[in-house]
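Sequence in, structure out. Go.
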Amino acid sequence: TVGQTIANASASEAVLLVVTVAMLPAVCEELVCRGIVLQGLRTRASRIWLPIAVSSLFFGLLHFDKLHAPMAALMGIMLGIIALRTGSMIPPILCHLLNNMVSVLTPQVGGPDLGWVLDNGLPLWLVAIGIALLGGGLYGLFRTTSWVDLPEDALKDHEKNDTANAHDGQE
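Output:
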């Protein structure tokens, strides 16, 4: 596993592995899924959930296996919401990077590796903590930010301008 490879690597090799396994995928996958797919669909969709759902499913499919794909798709929903709420690619990239770094480094600090999780499942307390952190983070995000340039908002503004222009033309 990657964790075992890092454990046997020199410091410079370990840093290189973390960069290639955690950082590069986070940046590249976010630029494609949230940057190109989500933003591209966002300009064409009349409902905001559609671009989030499509980009999240695409993100899940990029992970190719039955364990990672559903979890990646769920994570994609969160990352899509974060991207749209903040109007920036930096927060979803940082969240994705943090997730990848935890996955890579957890076996190094005495946590279960992927093989153990596949055989035994995640400990319930760990799942509960993850759900609590996710819920708290999304709650905080929704309380402190607003949607950025949603198609619905743009459509409402466009309709207001059309109505104002129509009234100006009648006088």
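Check: The chain has a mean pLDDT of 75. DSSP finds eight helices and no strands in the chain.
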